[in-house]
Amino acid sequence: MTRNDALNLKPQMISAHKNTHCCISREFSAAAANNANKIAVVHASGRALLSPQLRSRTSITEDAAPALVRQLLYDGDHSFTYSHLISAVGSLTSQLLSTPRLPCDYNKPSRRIFGLYMPPSAEYIVSVLSVLRCGEAFLPLDPSWPKQRLLSVISSANVDLIIASRTPFGFESDSNWLPEACGGRVLWFSMEERKNGGIDWDWACKCESVKERPCWCYLMYTSGSTGKPKGVCGTEQGLLNRFLWMQELYPLFGDEVLLFKTGISFVDHLQEFLSAILTGCTLVIPPFNHLKRNVFSLVDFLQAYFVNRLTAVPSLMRAILPSLQGRDDEQLPRSLDLLVLSGEVLPLSLWDKLSKMLPRTAILNLYGSTEVSGDCTYFDCKRLPLILAADRLTTVPIGMPIFNCDVVLIGGDDVSNEGEIYVAGVCNSSGYYSDSMVTPLDTVRLSQDSVCCSSVNGHKSQYYFRTGDFAKQLRSGDLVFLGRKDRTIKLNGQRIALEEIEDTVRGHSEVIDAAVIFHKVQGELMLLVAFIILREGIPKEIFGATIKSWMADKLPLAMIPGHIVVTESFPVSSSGKINYELLADSVFLAKHVEDGLGDVGSSNLLQLVKTAFRDVLSVEEISDDDDFFTMGGNSIAAAHLSNNIGVDMRLIYCFPSPSMLCTALLERKESLNINVSRDAKSKMNLEGGKPSFFHVHSDTPATVNFDEQRRLLRTLSGRSEDNAIISKRLKLDSNINVAGDSSPANGYPWNSVAIYASCSFSRCNKVVYEGGSVVKDIYQATCSVMVPKSRNVPMQESWKVYMGLCVDASPIIVHKGQDIYLFIGSHSHKFMCVNARSGSVQWEIKLEGRVECSAAILSDFTQVVVGCYRGKIYFLDFLNGNICWTFQTSGEVKSQPVIDSQRQLIWCGSYDHNLYALDYKNHCCVYQLPCGGSIYGSPAIDEMNNILYVASTSGQMTAISIAVLQISRFIV
């Protein structure tokens, strides 16, 4: 059967498999025996993402990999052959079989449960295969889970032994707490120690000799509507059936490369690695933390390793759209044959974008849940145009059942083709596991009369699992997902029972009751909101500052509500139950701070400041004397607060309460009355012609009026009452004198020219003023210091600072009030802030790579931005150097970032040939543009015409229209 023939098979042509495929262990042994010296797993180091000039692939022998994989490895990658895997499986299996059992528990099933505490890795794969060969059950323990949730799951499952790695691949975690927390029942496992052992090629499957096979072989804990996580008892038959269906309909031939990137807390991860390992393919595993930090690197991994098949949730594909949209056709992952989407509803709009960007890639939409071994229906999107001609849809259908699965709809009396989805077949799990007890699934025995729609002809009378999901059947027979009527949702591919969040919050000692809802933002994105009733006498301001950190120790990140509302009561129905619909409506009636803070009112500056505090801290109430940092604020939140009210962030550290900050603002004369005046030796030019000069200084106000308060809180927006143009950059003009005698006073250079406004000086004498300055001139203003040519000016050394190694970058100098700071990095990985007057180091941070580019500073002067040789772009706190945010590119960053405050963006190039547009307020990449070569120089922005220019080492100059971020470009 050829590849094309297999892809054209119809479901009706597929027959059920017999005992030729009895278990996963037999499938793996056969694949390993046929591909002993072939690369099975690659631990990708991430160095493959560097530009081609620096790539250095490791040589692989002809028999070690198929043609597409011979050039697969890069420096830093670690590979394991099928011989390595099967040797490690044999070694670990022997050790597990020799492990003594725990004392007998009459309530516990005879099978043992082994917890696997490790990220996606070769160690994890070997651990799964070893437990299956032992005939026992495995329990994935996601290292990214909070510690308390891990301990709860371990206790609920009564785990016999935990298999863990001291140095897990691609994940920075501390496993040393495990032995003490689990009574010493931990087995440390490393592939490097096991891969070179003996191989038992004569291992014999015992399935035929065993009269009664185990009913389940793995536990997957999911969010439960009872308020506690519940373990689903998955079966080996269900996994094998899903694998064999995929292999028959969309086969792998052994020369493909697949990617294992899904977290082990999702059931989809099992097929992600089994489909490769059981067919003799090569499986590439990216570093877990790398993908978590930089989701866009997923596209680069697809390209670098010629990946042929990818499994993902739709929200992940939506997240990487900027990276896909910014690439030319030849730079898209052309090797990708099949994209498997599951775990969430697939919007029609997303399919349309993906199908246009990846026209060579087949897209498959799957539906299922942990209870049905991951998937039970499928839809091939190549049939979508025909279906859209007959039906109007907003989401892609979930299609038809996979073989050996029966899917029916049980509906009401009003609509004949809609109903709840019920599933039967080998895909169904054995039940739920908790506290050593297995309870059955929610199943019913159906007769033909009770079925309104069946996805197969003549369904059998058997027990069906009630999914809780609703669908309708199209004229083609395909199912379309409609939603649920209970309180279980899917968020980023993760099933979340809102009852579990409520139960967790109710466990807080200061909480009487809690109700959690979700609502959609902009049609697709969902936001969790928790309404909480506190015990009498509990200050809700203090509670609001601590509840999120309390929840972070007990719930996965995806389950922590983004907004907390403290209330006195909940709306109830006639039966006395919480009316969640009314509660959801109240979200839109809750007090929210609008973007235009000045519109709140100008009669009370204190109220404006308190409003800004509430907005940033996401609390309902705040008192005059509440401390910003004890309420949960940090340096990032302080940056947002200073952004919103337009003040120096240092004021928030010095005056952390609303009353103190308000008093400081009223007393700080220079903050409230910054005016532009003509210099004595220059004039304002309002008619055009030669660019004029202006100089910024502070007048001392006799009184403070609230119009100025409103203006203060609008500073960041770049608007003034007369809509004057704001000039953000100035450059030197040698024909203009700034301040008369520019010689040092008393021989000390800093006493000469006083600079009253905050500003920065960087390469090419580019000057940026904090927040911009008001100028009624359409031309860029210019300034200079004139030094008479006939005069000898002595040079003197003021101070020295040792940077460790070579300094390639130019410094950036920042004037802030009466202080002057210098920011510079070196090859020693050091980046520091130096007091330019005294030479004293204010703070120092060691980055991951050497610094070869100059830094930049945000327009509000709260953060310094700099890149490093390891491809990271750092956003550092101006005051202390703390990391506020990082963005990972795939090559060295030698280009100085450019601030685009009008669009709140940072533009920065990388050695990976891409130009990135980073939203520094929302901490995300909004655009990635391939430029054909490495980018060394800084981009340049023509703000008047909204054009950005960038050059690359390919000799290509690119002009980009940035008027709106539907970016078009012109190449020279």
UniProtKB/TrEMBL annotation:
NAD among the record's keywords? no
Localisation per UniProt entry = Cytoplasm
Q: Which UniProt keywords apply?
A: Cytoplasm, Phosphopantetheine, Phosphoprotein
GO CC annotations on file: cytoplasm
The AMP-binding enzyme C-terminal domain sits at: 500-577
Q: Where is the Pyrrolo-quinoline quinone repeat domain?
A: 803-962
This protein's major location comes to cytoplasm
**Domain AMP-dependent synthetase/ligase per the UniProt entry, residue ranges:** 66-433
The Carrier domain is annotated at: 608-645
Q: What is this protein called?
A: Carrier domain-containing protein
The protein's organism comes out as Prunus persica
